[in-house]
Amino acid sequence: xxxxxxxxxxxxxxxxxxxxxxxxxxxxxxxxxxxxxxxxxxxxxxxxxxxxxxxxxxxxxxxxxxxxxxxxxxxxxxxxxxxxxxxxxxxxxxxxxxxxxxxxxxxxxxxxxxxxxxxxxxxxxxxxxxxxxxxxxxxxxxxxxxxxxxxxxxxxxxxxxxxxxxxxxx
Length: 170
Description:
Blueprint: H1 10-35, H2 43-66, H3 76-102, E1 108-110, E2 113-116, H4 124-157, H5 162-167
Antiparallel strand pairs: 1-2
Helix pairs in contact: 1-2, 2-3, 3-4
């Protein structure tokens, strides 16, 4: 269940693959918003997924910190890459939530349940922060994830069996 120097444990793997699927949906839906207005019907799902990602990334970070001494070891560049991934995985959904709260978009509702209310009136700095940074950092996260995947494949092809740490047998 816990991580060890050879591989990631069940909880880390669950966080990784669940969040990977959710971020894939977020990237596809964000792209579709730019293609045609009809895809804005996906917005409630995009927002709900973003909210759950915000919760999961905090839980994942706490789990990673708890398992830090037991995790597979990586080079400084790997650690910096993972730190950048975590920074963006935290920043992107939370900036989206800030925009939702203060951007005049109404309360965040998931399945008819109000998760948090909207600000009584639009808060300009929250709206501007979200409008400028949420999408920009989202695409930066997408690029970083693409690099993460590419490097995992490169290391695997070099015979380092890196994919087994997150996907292989325990």
